[in-house]
C-alpha cells in the first residue's frame, strides 16, 4: 500500500539516492509538484540522472546540472534551451525503442514520478494524460512516486495503476500543464489543402503537433468514418469526434476507439477524455509498434521535417549543431503507414524558413532522421511530390518542383553537380 505524504513533508532524499536514474511523465503528464521538489532538493542525491521524453514546463534549468544530469530523446519545447546550454545530451532513439531502452537498463530507471488521477471505485488510478513508456519504467523502478491530482481526468487504458504499485503518494489539486493548439495562417492552410486531398473517408490519422496538423484537421470536418491511431492527440480531436468525422469504425482494430499514447492539450480535451470510453491511452508497444500499425487500415501518417534533400532524405533533428527536433515517432509511423493496407506517409514542411532560405536542399545540414528509401510523399505550400518508386534523378525533379520558385534553378544546378542532368 502506498505511503501517503503531504507535499510539504516530502523529503525526496529519503527515496532518491545519489546516482539514481529518474524517469517522469513527459509533456502534459509532468508531475509538476514533484519535479519542482526534485530540483529544489537536488543536493541530497547528487549525480542522479533525469530522463526526458518531451518537456514544456520551465521546471528544469541548465544550472541544475550542479547536482543533476540530464538525458533525453528530444530538443523540442523547453528542452531546446537545455541542449543549447550543453546541459542535456540528446539520445537519438525512436519512440518505439524507449520502453526497451528502459527495460534493458540502457536508460537507467530507479525512480519513477507520475501524475495520475484520483482512484476509481476499484481503487485504481488512471494514468490521466500520458501512458506511453511509463509501464516499462514502473516495472524497472525501485520507487514509484505519484502526484494524485483532483484535476487529472480518468482516461481509459489497458492497465490502470493499482495502489500497491505506488511507493509514495502525494495528493494535490494542481492543474496539469496545458499545451494549446498551435496557431496557423494561410501558409499552413496552403500545405494542409494539398494534404487533405490525400485523406479519404475512412482513413486512419496519425499527426503530430504544430500549425500544419491543426490546419489539416480544420479541413476534415466533412469527412466520414475517420479513425485515429496516433502517438499523441490535441484539442482538435474534440472537434473531429464531436462533428462525427471521427468514428473509428473502419480501422481494422480497436474499432470505435481513438488510440493515443498522450493527450497534449488543454482542459477542453481533458474534460472530453474524462471517462470517455471512445478514447484509450495505450503504451508505445501498441501506439508505435510496426506489427500493430500493419493491421491499421488506410493509415495516413503526417510528420514534419526541418529540411529534406532532393533525393528525399529527411532531417527532423538538427540544423548543424543546433539540436531543435527529435527522431520521435516519425520513422515508426512512416514505416507503419507503408505496411498499412492503403496507407500513405506524408512529410509536411514549409518551402522556406524564417529567413527565406530553402528547406528543400541539395545536401542536408544535419543528420538523416528518415532514410530516403522510407519516404513516400512530401508536401509544401507549392504542391505534393510522390516519391515512392522514383529513381534519384526523378526525385530531384519532383522535389525541386515543390520548392519555392526563387530557389528552384539554384537547387537544380547544385543537384547537377552530384547527380548529373536531372
UniProtKB/TrEMBL annotation:
Q: Output the Gene3D superfamilies linked to this UniProt entry.
A: 4-hydroxybutyrate coenzyme like domains, Acetyl-CoA hydrolase/transferase C-terminal domain, Glutaconate Coenzyme A-transferase
Give every Acetyl-CoA hydrolase/transferase N-terminal domain span.
79-157
Span-the-membrane segments of this chain are none
Task: Report the record's Gene Ontology biological process terms.
Answer: acetate metabolic process
Which keywords does the record carry?
A: Hydrolase, Transferase
UniProt GO molecular function: acetate CoA-transferase activity; hydrolase activity
Name of one Pfam family that matches: AcetylCoA_hydro
Q: Where is the Acetyl-CoA hydrolase/transferase C-terminal domain?
A: 265-415
What's the family?
Belongs to the acetyl-CoA hydrolase/transferase family.
Q: What is this protein called?
A: Acetyl-CoA hydrolase
Amino acid at each position: 500500500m502506498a505511503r501517503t505524504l503531504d507535499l510539504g513533508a516530502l523529503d525526496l532524499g529519503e527515496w532518491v539516492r545519489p546516482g539514481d536514474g529518474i524517469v517522469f511523465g513527459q509533456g502534459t503528464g509532468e508531475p509538476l509538484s514533484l519535479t519542482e521538489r526534485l530540483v529544489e532538493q537536488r543536493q541530497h542525491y547528487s549525480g542522479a540522472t533525469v530522463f526526458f521524453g518531451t518537456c514544456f514546463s520551465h521546471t528544469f534549468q541548465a544550472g541544475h546540472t550542479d547536482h543533476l544530469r540530464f538525458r533525453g530523446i528530444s530538443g523540442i519545447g523547453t528542452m531546446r534551451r537545455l541542449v543549447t546550454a550543453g546541459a542535456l545530451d540528446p539520445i537519438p532513439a525512436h519512440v518505439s525503442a524507449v520502453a526497451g531502452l528502459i527495460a534493458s537498463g540502457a536508460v537507467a530507471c530507479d525512480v519513477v514520478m507520475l501524475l495520475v488521477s484520483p482512484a476509481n471505485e476499484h481503487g485504481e488510478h488512471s494514468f490521466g494524460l500520458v501512458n506511453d513508456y511509463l509501464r516499462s519504467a514502473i516495472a524497472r523502478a525501485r520507487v514509484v512516486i505519484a502526484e494524485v491530482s483532483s484535476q487529472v481526468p480518468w482516461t481509459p487504458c489497458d492497465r490502470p495503476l493499482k495502489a500497491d504499485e505506488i511507493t509514495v503518494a502525494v495528493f494535490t489539486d494542481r492543474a496539469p500543464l496545458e499545451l494549446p493548439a498551435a496557431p496557423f495562417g494561410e501558409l499552413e492552410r496552403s500545405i494542409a489543402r494539398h494534404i487533405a486531398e490525400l485523406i479519404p473517408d475512412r482513413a486512419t490519422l496519425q499527426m503530430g503537433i504544430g500549425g500544419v496538423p491543426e490546419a489539416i484537421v480544420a479541413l476534415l470536418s466533412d469527412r466520414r468514418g475517420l479513425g485515429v491511431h496516433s502517438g499523441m492527440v490535441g484539442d482538435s480531436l474534440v472537434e473531429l469526434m464531436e462533428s462525427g468525422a471521427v468514428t473509428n469504425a473502419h480501422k481494422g482494430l480497436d474499432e470505435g476507439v481513438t488510440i493515443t499514447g498522450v493527450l497534449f492539450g488543454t482542459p477542453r480535451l481533458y474534460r472530453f477524455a474524462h471517462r470517455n470510453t471512445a478514447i484509450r491511452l495505450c503504451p508505445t508497444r501498441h501506439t508505435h509498434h510496426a506489427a500493430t500499425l500493419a493491421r491499421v487500415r488506410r493509415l495516413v501518417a503526417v510528420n514534419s521535417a526541418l529540411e529534406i534533400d532532393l533525393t528525399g532524405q529527411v532531417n527532423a533533428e538538427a540544423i548543424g549543431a543546433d539540436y531543435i527536433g527529435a527522431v520521435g515517432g516519425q520513422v515508426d509511423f512512416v514505416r507503419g503507414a507503408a505496411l498499412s493496407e492503403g496507407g500513405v506517409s506524408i512529410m509536411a514542411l514549409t518551402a522556406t524558413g524564417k529567413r527565406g532560405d530553402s528547406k528543400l536542399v541539395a545536401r542536408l545540414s544535419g543528420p538523416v532522421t528518415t532514410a530516403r528509401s522510407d519516404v513516400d510523399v512530401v508536401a509544401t505550400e507549392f504542391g505534393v511530390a510522390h516519391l515512392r518508386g522514383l529513381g534519384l534523378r526523378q526525385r530531384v525533379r519532383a522535389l525541386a518542383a515543390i520548392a519555392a520558385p526563387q530557389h528552384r534553378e539554384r537547387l537544380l544546378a547544385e543537384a547537377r553537380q552530384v547527380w548529373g542532368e536531372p
